[in-house]
Write a structure and sequence with these properties.
The longest helix has 19 residues. The chain is 35% helix and 21% strand. Bound molecules: flavin-adenine dinucleotide.
Length: 555
């Protein structure tokens, strides 16, 4: 039986972050994820490495930690972070005629933003500014006219899927055993102590046991279920959050809007699309079975329309949901719950060797992982220092190469080269070198977002991607406007070729991707979106180039 110092359960940002830190400190580490990296909350969030201005009054320590860690994350993954300045417009009940109360509100808001400015240097953010109505409309003409002006706020965004993959890759580079599509089904005990786990390969059904001196439950919304395997109770207050993706970049800035119940909702540019988010509702269901209702979508769209009517010009591409593994409290409204985190050492509950982490933010994942590994290291007598704030993630070691140069040297279109440079940083050359001996990999597979076959092949060969759904997370395959109509077939053929799949297995993989896309479409199907969905169905389920029994030719 294989044996480790630490077994980490869950390949979200917390699990991958813990595995990386532990491996870097020399602990013999294994990371297992039942689906894929960032397939849970870590891939269903707003992708903001933000400072958490909302928590400033009630939980200033949460804001401070997020700002501090945001600064470190910028240092270790400079290629992956992008700046998103936000606008906070103050609307008037009677446009152009501010009441005393409304004027007082703007001054109050400005004081609040001024307090947040004190934390901005930690994350290289600029101090807020106040804009007049005229200045606001010069920046974003689509905002309703006659406002009292706006306050600005400087934040950062990231692709959370890539962040988790890079953590997992880095853990592996430091010697960790890393396995996605591997589920913990049972915990091994020696008396009271947790000493390992039974693992099931979800694709083959094969089971094996591994031993570990410590086991860390980083299961996010699944953490209570995993804790139950050890006979201990972990209580969270799960909160469902829905986002909507629009078919184009509607604004250059993030815009904070007020929903009908006065909650803050935003619209912001992300890659070639815009994201509207988010709801926050208590959730009592199964995190493996999430769906979005039309009401949730309309709530978000109404909120944005109120401030930014131009939003209705866009087509809603899809809606998606995630569950916040928020700390338990009885009483507060969902929005008011603390975003702090907690690390449980279950020795106190009679299960020595077993730990759980819950709560927190994507933006402070690195610091949370450090605290988690400190707890394990104390137990195991490991005194190595944490260096995850100093050592770059893959691609962050040096400046990203210039896109024109990449394009010229490797013969890929400039728009695709620019994208590879941003998403892979210093590794961009390495990604494109996969096409040196196979020039056909230089072709663009997904023309909506400029995803090349080279990127897909790199993720299949170097980034633990096994399926089309994994490639969607690594490379944004099928995330663009056509939602897979053009790219899913050719990409399925590449996966079949790389993994030597039978045509039945390749078809099953393709169907799984389309089914997953369908889940995101079904709450928003109308008009052009409906026509789009019908086109995908027609392409892949009837006439498409899938030859049963004969393989899927792509070259
Ligand atoms: C709607 C929404 C918006 C958010 N926006 C932001 C934001 O903008 N900025 C920010 O900082 N934070 C944000 N957050 C919070 C942030 O996303 C979460 O705090 C964070 O992703 C939690 O990560 P995690 O690793 O604990 O959980 P997860 O990412 O859910 O990871 C847990 C993993 O465990 C795996 N797993 C479960 N059971 C098993 C098992 N038996 N064996 C193996 N693996 C298992 C799951 O498949 C899953 O991948 C948001 C959250 C939501 C839901």
């Amino acid at each position: 039986m294989r044996s480790y110092d630490l077994l980490v359960i869950g390949g979200g940002v917390n699990g991958t972050g813990i595995a990386r830190d532990a491996a870097m400190r020399g602990l013999r580490t294994m990371l297992v994820e039942k689906k894929d990296f960032a397939a849970g909350s870590s891939g269903a969030n707003s992708g903001m490495i933000h400072g958490g201005i909302r928590y400033l009054l009630d939980d200033p320590q949460v804001t401070r930690l997020a700002c501090l860690d945001s600064g470190y994350i910028q240092r270790i993954a400079p290629h992956l972070l992008f700046r998103i300045p936000f606008l906070y417009p103050v609307l008037l009940e009677r446009p152009g005629e501010p009441s005393l109360k409304e004027s007082a509100f703007l001054y109050g808001a400005e004081c609040y933003f001024e307090a947040y400015d004190r934390y901005q240097p930690l994350k290289n953010g600029k101090a807020h500014t106040r804009l007049t109505d005229g200045e606001l409309h010069e920046l974003e003409p689509g905002i309703v006219p006659g406002t009292l002006g706006a306050v600005t706020m400087d934040e950062y965004g990231i692709d959370p899927f890539r962040l988790c993959t890079l953590n997992a890759r880095s853990a592996a580079a430091y010697g960790a055993a890393v396995r996605n599509h591997t589920q913990v089904t049972r915990l091994l005990r020696d008396g009271a102590a947790v000493v390992g786990a039974e693992l099931k390969d979800v694709r083959t059904g094969r089971a094996e046991e591994v031993r570990a001196r410590c086991v860390f439950n980083a299961g996010g919304p699944w953490a209570p279920k995993i804790a139950a395997l050890a006979g201990v109770t972990v209580k969270i207050r799960p909160g469902k959050g829905v986002h909507v993706t629009l078919d184009r970049r509607l604004s250059n800035y993030g815009i904070i809007c007020k929903a009908v119940d006065n909650r803050d909702v935003f619209v912001m540019p992300h890659e070639d699309s815009s994201i509207v988010g988010t709801t926050d509702d208590d959730f009592y269901g199964d995190p493996d079975d999430l769906s979005v209702t039309r009401d949730e979508v309309e709530y978000l769209m109404e909120a944005v329309t109120h401030t930014f009517p131009a939003v209705r010009q866009a087509r809603v591409l899809r809606a998606w949901a995630g569950i916040r593994p928020t700390l338990y409290a009885y009483g507060p409204l969902e929005d008011k719950l603390s975003r702090d985190h907690r690390i449980h050492d279950h020795e106190e509950d009679g299960a020595p060797g077993f730990f759980t982490i819950v709560g927190g933010k994507l933006a402070s994942f690195r610091a949370m992982a450090q605290e988690a590994v400190d707890a394990v290291a104390r137990k195991l007598g490991n005194s190595a220092a944490c260096t995850t704030h100093q050592v770059a993630l893959p691609g962050g070691e040096a400046p990203a190469p210039e896109a024109q140069e990449l394009s010229r040297k490797h013969g890929v279109p400039a728009f695709a080269a620019a994208r590879i440079s941003y998403r892979h940083g210093a590794e961009a050359e390495r990604v494109l070198r996969t096409a040196d001996d196979e020039p056909e990999l230089r072709a663009v597979a997904c023309s909506c977002e400029g995803v090349t076959f080279a990127e897909l092949a790199f993720s299949l060969r170097e980034e633990f991607a096994e399926s089309l759904a994994d490639l969607r997370r690594r490379c944004r395959l099928a995330m663009g406007v056509c939602q897979g109509t053009r790219c899913a077939g050719p990409a399925a053929a590449l996966v079949a070729d790389e993994r030597q799949l039978s045509s039945e297995a390749a078809l099953a993989d393709l169907t799984a991707l389309l089914d997953e896309r369908w889940k995101g479409n079904r709450a928003v199907l109308a008009g052009e979106g409906l026509a789009q969905a019908e086109l995908v169905q027609g392409t892949y389920y009837t006439t498409g180039g899938l030859r049963r029994g004969g393989g899927i030719p792509w070259r």
